[in-house]
Automatic annotation (TrEMBL):
Residues 365-601 form the ABC transporter domain. It comes from the Bacteria. It holds the Pfam family ABC_tran. The chain crosses the membrane at residues 43-60, 86-109, 165-184, 190-208, 268-287, 307-325. InterPro entries: AAA+_ATPase, ABC1_TM_dom, ABC1_TM_sf, ABC_transporter-like_ATP-bd, ABC_transporter-like_CS, P-loop_NTPase, Type_1_exporter. This is ABC transporter, permease/ATP-binding protein. It is a multi-pass membrane protein. It is found in: Cell membrane. GO terms for molecular function: ABC-type oligopeptide transporter activity; ATP binding; ATP hydrolysis activity. PROSITE patterns: ABC_TM1F, ABC_TRANSPORTER_1, ABC_TRANSPORTER_2. GO terms for cellular component: plasma membrane. Residues 45-329 form the ABC transmembrane type-1 domain.
């Protein structure tokens, strides 16, 4: 049963998994219900209005029956009046019903929107303050779906499913009572057939949906073939594989037809069942009712009432299955959202004023016998007994083959992860003597792949210091050798970048990241050098900007091109998570069979 959506939620495109209704799943639902507490009064009034509008709704068939009876009983003058009066009463009932329904919908939507806004915000706040470990275990798509699909499902439930459930229960109880009042005999006859037929129709309907989903899946598979071949059309042509792809696609499409035909047979059967079974039974009830009219047991108006109430009751019974499924989906969604809300987050406040620097760093860093493995892969030791020191203002280069653990060291400095053994010291004090915000606020990173957010260049630079003035931003851009290229755009600093904006080159993006870091004015700087090389002019501009950035700060440079680190105060060479050489360029070049010397010579030859 498709229901119109009343709120702002996205239509849930994917089928959400259902959860069993258990004590635990209900407990989770109760946790989210707490978010509704501030709006409970409005919700209560919504429920009251729901009750009143449904009761008014239940009177409509009764008065319609009376209307017909007053027309058929006699054609006396007062009856005519009676018809008008009953019609007026009906209009009155409709008005009352409309009035209650309007406010019920308004209030339910308001409660759902406001409740969901709080849950959405809390979920998002939770997500952005979770540890990096959490993100390395989850896929972004999955987390995205919690914020969109799962929360929309919950929102839908507050606005529609829950109230529909209550409404159907009232309609069912009221409808059956009204049916009994009209004729107990006819009601018993109807109730002995209809519930079974409706149950069979639901069961059959579900079965058919399952089969048609299979056909849809197969169709999606064949669409993937089209997508793949079109994306790789040059490969298809170069290998003259048109014939191969044609066969692959034909086979896939034939499968679609096979499943669709299987579904068609059941679909046809379903129509036969509905026509013969359901409508046949309706004919039977009306036939029986008509005979009762003929024998004077009931009036035509009462038979009309009976038919209308039967429709209500049948509709309510049929709707329950879908509502139950929706309820299960909501419990599933609730479970996933609550699970996320219960995750441990990093001690970082989402109120910026609370994150101001309290303990200032000088810039000494020291790794003391650090052992580390990523919590998601505990069997692989990534850092083994790593020790080195960086004094305030020094340039330390970390060098080593791919996968040696260089970026991991950078992440440890940022305290994205904690070591399993050993100690990380800042200014000679253990890292946990400082708050996370104090440390991260005084470190800036220029990453390998610079991600620019959708927005203007100005906003992207200001990400290093929220609220920076235009002058500060321009000064940082000048220091980063970015000002000149920014000014070549007609809109200058207001030029939009990111997915929907101007595409900047690798070197330009790096200079924006450098400007961002300059604006942050950190004590410690981490440079994760880009692996892809820039052209020599771009390289010169970036290098110049980096020189400016590194002045008077402790810099940790993850170097891929060894030519850029000759001037480093210290070069730490790591291999398979172990420090194997430490020294400056000249020291390390003197080492026979040294890894640094080997790598240097390799790059020089290249
Ligand atoms: N989030 C993560 N979860 C699990 N393992 C990881 C994670 N990040 C990195 N690793 C693993 O840790 C090891 C060290 O990776 P790291 O990125 O520190 O190496 P690297 O020296 O910086 O390499 P490259 O020069 O290629 O960037 C690798 O084996 C890598 O597969």
């Amino acid at each position: 049963m498709a229901r119109a959506r009343l709120n702002s939620g996205n239509p849930t495109e994917q089928e959400l998994p259902k959860a069993k209704i258990t004590k635990d799943s209900l407990k989770n639902a109760a946790i989210l219900l707490k978010y509704m507490k501030p709006y409970r009064l409005k919700f209560g009034f919504g429920l009251l209005f729901l009750l009143l509008s449904t009761i008014a709704f239940l009177f409509i068939p009764k008065e319609m029956g009376s209307l017909i009876d007053s027309a058929t009983n006699s054609i006396k003058r007062e009856t005519l009046n009676n018809i008008n009066e009953i019609a007026l009463l009906l209009v009155g009932i409709l008005c009352v019903q409309a009035f209650f329904s309007f406010f019920r919908i308004l209030w339910f939507v308001e409660v759902a929107e406001k409740t969901l806004a709080s849950i959405r915000k809390d979920t998002y706040f939770k997500l952005i303050t979770l540890s990096m470990d959490f993100f390395s275990r989850r896929r972004v798509g999955e987390l995205n779906s919690r914020i969109s699909a799962d929360l929309s499902q919950i929102q839908d439930s507050i606005t529609t499913t829950f109230s529909e459930f209550l409404r159907q229960i009232i309609v069912l109880a009221g409808g059956v009572t009204a049916l009994c009042l009209v004729s107990l005999k006819l009601t018993l006859m109807m109730l002995s057939i209809f519930p079974f037929l409706i149950a069979a129709a639901i069961f059959f309907g579900r079965f058919i949906r399952k089969i048609s989903r299979k056909a849809q899946d197969k169709l999606a598979e064949s669409n993937i073939i089209v997508e793949e071949t079109l994306q790789g059309i040059s490969s298809v042509k170069a290998f003259v594989n048109e014939a191969y792809e044609a066969v692959r696609y034909s086979n896939s499409i034939d499968k679609v037809v096979k499943y669709a035909m299987r579904g068609a047979k059941y679909r046809g059967g379903f129509v036969v069942f509905i026509t013969m079974g359901l409508f046949g039974s309706i004919v039977a009830v009306i036939w029986y009712g008509s005979r009762m009219v003929q024998s004077g047991e009931i009036t035509v108006g009462q038979l009309t009432q009976f038919i209308l109430y039967s429709g209500f009751v049948g509709g309510a019974m049929g709707g329950f299955a879908e509502l139950y499924a929706q309820l299960q989906k909501t419990l599933g969604a609730t479970e996933r959202v609550v699970e996320l809300l219960k995750e441990h987050n990093e001690p970082i406040s989402i109120v910026s004023a609370e994150n101001s620097v309290k303990q200032h760093l000088k810039g000494d860093i020291s790794f003391n016998n650090i052992h580390f493995n990523y919590p998601s892969r505990p069997e692989i030791g990534v850092l083994n007994d790593v020790s080195f020191t960086a004094n305030a203002g020094e340039r330390i280069a970390i060098v080593g083959p791919s996968g040696a653990g260089k970026s991991t060291i950078a992440q440890m400095v940022l305290r994205f992860y904690e070591p399993q053994k050993g100690q990380l010291l800042y200014d000679g004090k253990p890292s946990n003597n400082y708050s996370l915000t104090d440390i991260r606020n005084q470190i800036a990173i220029v990453p390998q792949d610079v991600l620019l957010f959708g927005g203007s260049i100005k906003e992207n630079i200001a990400y290093g210091k929220i609220g920076a003035s235009d002058e500060e931003i321009i000064e940082a851009a000048k220091g980063a050798n970015a000002h000149n290229f920014i000014m070549t755009f007609p809109e200058g600093y207001d030029t939009l970048v990111g997915e929907r904006g101007v595409k900047l080159s690798g070197g330009q993006r790096q200079r924006i990241a450098i400007a961002r870091a300059l604006l942050k004015n950190p004590v410690i700087l981490i440079l994760d050098e880009a692996t892809s090389s820039l052209d020599s002019e771009s390289e010169r501009l970036v290098q110049e900007a980096l020189e400016e950035l590194m002045k008077n700060r402790t810099s940790i440079i993850i170097a891929h091109r060894l030519s850029t680190i000759r001037e480093a105060d210290k070069i730490v060479v790591i291999e398979k998570g172990k420090v194997i050489e430490v020294g400056n360029h000249n020291d390390l070049m003197l080492k026979d069979n040294g890894l640094y010397r080997y790598l240097s010579e390799l790059q020089f030859e290249a």
